[in-house]
Amino acid sequence: MNKKHILIVSVDYPPNSSIGSRRISSISKGLYEKGFIPHVVTTKNHSLKFEKQIEIPSEYIHYVKWKDIRVLVKVLESKKITKYFAKVINYFFPNSSNTLPERRLQYWINPAIKECLQIIKNNNIKLIYSSYNPPASVRVAAAVTEKTGIPWINEYRDLWTGNPYLSSSGKVKELNWKVESNLITNADALVTVSEPLKLDLIKLHNKPTYVIYNGIDKINETKSYQKTSNNIIKIVYTGIIYKGKRDPKQLFEALKILKSKNIEVFNRLSIDFYGAKMKEIMGKDVDDFGLEKIINLHDPISHDKVIKVQSEADILLLLGWNNIADEGVVTGKVFEYLSWKKPILALGYIGGAMDLLLRETKTGYVVNDPMEICDYIVSMGNIVKTETQLKKFKDQIDITEFYRSTQIDSLISIFKETIDRNQIRI
Hints:
By secondary structure, the protein is of the alpha/beta class. 45% of the residues lie in helices and 15% in strands. Helix 1 (19-33) packs across helix 17 and helix 9 crosses helix 15. The longest helix is centred in the C-terminal third of the chain and has 18 residues, at 404-421.
């Protein structure tokens, strides 16, 4: 069978272990298994390096060298006398940026364009696929498709214009919209992660737009995992906290109520948060609510360790934002959770895409009222500690629609349709 060559442009890729990195890694792996050759152009010397496994042959991964100022920041941070200068540089050149100006990645764009053009020269590339965020991937792909005329699909893991988690001035928002609009003019189609975001993108750009979920790895369904003591109800959260938006305030209020109403269940809880600056962001709240005996705040861990702590949990905690602006958000984290077929305690926007997904798969639902959260914890705490009830809970879960292989098949159909519209056949 003839291999079909696809060019993928993404700032994030393993060994980076971010959610965006894992999505593109899984897409490239899925395409390779289906007979494609995915040539991935990504960043060299990314600062977030964990032991995420490379899942396609290394000759198809092109790590573009660039002048990354974060290398200097790390050197300055390591010495007491230069820490102040590191803070100043860090302010003007943040680790990543989902809007313009993205000063740090500016120095990657031109070398990445050059690398893409060389790959196209050496291979019969049928399609370009890029991933936002950040904007640098879009800027590279737009420039390459303009120079070559090769069809281009851009995926939005989040919105650029209209992203409720991005705060910026009116002038910056206007600049971002103008730049995004001009860049996406060259795109043949768009991909995103939920139906509400799809509708938003159609309104913004009036282009063919499709939904491809992050997808579920079947492997976790058959993994054995260590159960906690019958007396302990272990709840785990792995991810980012956005104070005032995606945070566990309602959970803390619920736990305070539980402490006064049902001390027996409260004392059985062990709740672990893993992520950046957990102690800095939530340490005071934990103390103020009197939850220091049951809540443990941890630094970020590698993805392999994330999988381990998820596997050992009785209930998985999912945080969203209780605001209509969050209606279309479906985090990559939810698909990691779904793969375990465990109860999911979710906070966020009731009736949004994430709530509907949990209800459809029968793994949980979004709940925000503190008393209802208490009831959920008590009821699920009983289920997960009773073998027959836990089996019954798992048996009613249906996640087959969201297997990653199914999502890859859908993506390939989009590729074929896009290429056919450009009168080029795979």
